[in-house]
Amino acid sequence: MYDLTGFQRDLLYVIAGLDEPHGLAIKDELEDYYEKEIHHGRLYPNLDTLVEKGLVEKGQRDRRTNYYTLTRRGKREIDARTEWEAQYVDA
Where are the alpha helices (DSSP H) in 1-91? Predict the structure, then answer.
């Protein structure tokens, strides 16, 4: 996870917290968090990067809608990151 941007890590966390979210649901969650608009040109290339890295799987809900889920590797990466952060941040 060390080679991901902060935005990509946030994408992973949102996907982990939702049940097979589609792109617009992910976008809505991040816009609420960032308190600004997330453009499609930023969202989808970063989702594709996570798929290419094997952290996220992309499935097709219908002809126009994809959904995203964490892979086992993605879950392990989040768990490892959480353990690493716990060393430095008192929860």
Answer: 6-17, 23-34, 40-52, 72-86
